[in-house]
Amino acid sequence: MIGIVMTTVLSFLLFLALSIIVYVKNRMRRKKIMKTTVEVLIFGIIVMFFVVYAFMPTITVPNMLILNVIVAVLFVPLVYGGAKVPVQYQTMHRSLSGIVILGVAVAVIGVFIYSILALEDSYESISKSEEEEARPLNEENTPISVAPESARNKVQKAMSVVPNTQFYDLGKLQAQQIDGEIAYVAPVEFSSFWRYLRGKETEGYFTITATNINAQPEFVQSKMRYTNSSFFNHNVQRVVYGKHPNYIQSGDAQIEVDDEGKPWYVQTIYKPLLFSNRPDMNDIKVAIVDPVSGEIETYDSSDAPEFVEGSVSSELAAIENEYFGKYVNGWLNSIFGKKDVKIPNESGTESSVTPIFNEAGEMFYFTDMASPKENIDSALGYTLINARTGALTYYNGQQNQGIMDSKGAVQIVNKQYPEKNWTGTMPVLYNVDGHPTWIVNVLDPNGLFKQYAYIKAADSDFAVFGDTAKQTLNAYRLQIAQDPSSVEGSQGVDLTEKSGTINRVLVTSTDSRQSVQFLLEGETTIYTVNTSKAPLAIFLKEGDQVDIQARIRENGTATVEEMQIQGIN
Q: Which regions span the lipid bilayer (predicted)?
């Protein structure tokens, strides 16, 4: 409430200045002017209190300028009319009130110009670094989540377990780690103002595992009075605004659950740069609201309690991506020269970004960057933004150049099953054995998960579909090994000399290549050799003795670089 009162009072500074000028210049009517000014001021403060209460404008220089202009335009004429003060038309620079108005106009223009120039300062405030490529993905730790659309669909079907379910809708899904498992958490929210008046408090929240496509949602009963959908002083945004009226709130508050299962509303807030509303990425904080008592604690984003995964909201991460890509060489360059400009794609699941987790359980926001040139569907690289610190890492190595972007990957999936109307969603770029690979969820029209798609980012014709992440990953790696053009697929794996007896043989032929797969006695490793490297391999048979040099991977596959067949070579 203090924040609302403070904002209301600050919005009347210009009104008071102009009213004082009217009072000073009209000696014969001062008593009437004083009385009218006080009456208008009281009336205006009451009106603006409710306006500020409803819209919660942040106390920043641009916002206060605009509010003061609006208040002056609305209420100063009431002082003139109520006190019957004659209006004298003079040249603006010869009138004290005109000089004040002129000064305010110049200030508004100045703030607008500074707001444009501040784009570069906001870019510079981003904590950023560059790396050539991400670490390779391994099947023991595949941070592939179920698409939120699919998870939401399942939770919606389970809403009937909520007491008085007619009062509620499902709130925003938030990815986080609970008891070592990645899960989606979604609060139950009021469906309308009247439902809020009747219900007073919500019933709890849902959780559903984000890494198991067969998982079912679980409802956790936990009464919450302070929520996003509550009204008046029980609204989370209003609680945060009351304590931090000079901080801008980024997106809606999201729910996160601590180790004891208690839900908290987490709201990202940031301090704008002086004289603008542009974010200062060095001053990101997170306000944590107790949904039962309404108590609020504020932390630097990186110092938030450990259970908070997303101190930095997806909305702020999207802004960070935009500034990082567009304003690398200033605002003018983003419009005209566009040197080094990169445009973030909008294929993400939350505000054009996609939350993912690494093997250490840390959450990042993924976004691929494309060229500003039209009709170019190749990616320039991709960014990962740490969801607790806001630190941005840009991956733009040679292997990431010339690859298709996320929109291209989604289009490949969409064209795969036109008769079923299945669509691709949540495209994420991973490094699989040295190959940039798009991993896409395939959903039916009802939002139900159907398949995973692994698409070679450098070859739109190279796509593998499967029912599980691990199955599809293994099939994809096997096809990579069989592809003679994929010499880089074994980078980082040393050559190993082996000798043994052939146990099983399989010859695979396509229009473009022919390869031989075999097993050695006493092993389960699948060896693959391309006939372009060893033409005589086509004559392999069970019982042959071979000497090979191969790159053996941990997933049970190997690529043969050289082969000697006893009795033939």
A: 6-24, 36-56, 62-83, 95-117
**Do residues 110 and 18 share a domain?**
yes
What separation, in Å, do the N-terminal and C-terminal C-alpha atoms of the chain show?
Answer: 87
Task: Please report the pLDDT score of residue 71 as a whole number.
Answer: 96
Task: Please name the residue ranges forming H helices in 158-253.
Answer: 193-199, 236-243
Q: Which residues of 102-118 are buried (b: 16+ CB within 10 A; e: fewer)?
A: eebeebeeebeebbeeb
Element (H, E) at 361: none
Burial class, 140, CB count within 10 angstroms (exposed 0-12 / middle 13-18 / buried 19+): exposed
Same domain, yes or no: 176 and 257 = yes
Cα 503 from chain centroid (whole Å): 50
Mean pLDDT of 4-15: 94
Structure tokens at 477: 């790696």
Do 251 and 194 fall into the same domain? yes
Residue 300 corresponds to which amino acid? Answer: D
In a domain, 136, yes or no: no
- Looking at the fold, whether 432 and 499 belong to one and the same domain comes out as no
Question: What digits encode the pLDDT tens for the residues 341-393?
Answer: 999 999 899 988 999 988 788 899 999 998 887 666 788 889 999 999 999 99
pLDDT reported for residue 487:
47
* Domain's final residue, options 482, 510, 539: 482
DSSP annotation of 206: E
| Cα distance between residue 71 and residue 63, in whole Å | 12
Rounded Cα distance between 67 and 57, Å, is 9
Domain contains 358: no
Q: 511 and 469, same structural domain? A: no
Q: Which of 295, 311, 327 is the last residue of a domain?
A: 311
pLDDT tens-digit profile of 63-115? 999 999 999 999 999 998 888 877 666 544 457 777 888 888 999 999 999 99
3-state secondary structure of 229: coil
Phi–psi pair at 529, nearest 5 degrees: -130, 130
Distance, C-alpha 524 to centroid of its chain: 42
Contacts of residue 467, Cβ cutoff 8 Å, sequence gap at least 6? 451, 452
For residue 142, pLDDT beyond 60: no
Torsion angle of C-alpha atoms 453, 458, 460, 463, degrees rounded to 10: -30
Q: Are residues 107 and 216 in the same domain?
A: no
Domain assignment present for residue 510? The answer is yes
Sheet holding 263-272, edge to edge: 248-257, 263-272, 279-289, 296-300
Q: Which two tokens stand for residue 468?
A: 């599980």
The alpha helices in 84-132, defined as continuous H runs, are: 96-124
pLDDT of residue 140: 54
- The answer to whether the beta carbons of residues 29 and 85 sit under 8 Å apart is yes
Which of 203, 208, 205 is closest to 182 using CA atoms? 208
* Claim to verify: residue 524 and residue 465 sit in the same structural domain: no
Compute CA 543 distance to the chain's CA centroid, rounded to the nearest angstrom.
56
Torsion of the alpha carbons at 50, 56, 58 and 61, rounded to the nearest 10: -40
Closest C-alpha among 219, 218, 209, 221 to residue 150: 209
Which range marks the domain in which residue 115 is found? 1-120
